[in-house]
Write the structure tokens for this entry.
Amino acid sequence: MSTDNVFQLPDSMQRQWRVFEALLRRELGAAGVDPDVSDVAMERIKPLYLRHAKPNPIPGDASPEEQLKAINDWVTQFGGGLLLEILIREIQLINLRGDGG
């Protein structure tokens, strides 16, 4: 049997990125950001998103309390990772501009 007609589906994090990217592009467009600049920005932020995004950590048989804790832990880890990335980039900008203390 030939594998020429077999398609490789993107993993769940890639699929989530596509949804997130579409939302971001819509917001950037509404803010008047040049599409070429949006393209570059999306290429730069995609690896950051994929580095911190994790699959849904909620087991199907978890109690409501366990589900809530799992969601809170996921949001804290994901949000904290992204904030750290933003902070690192802001520090780089400060250093490049020479406007740090």
User: Anything to note?
Assistant: The chain has a mean pLDDT of 86.
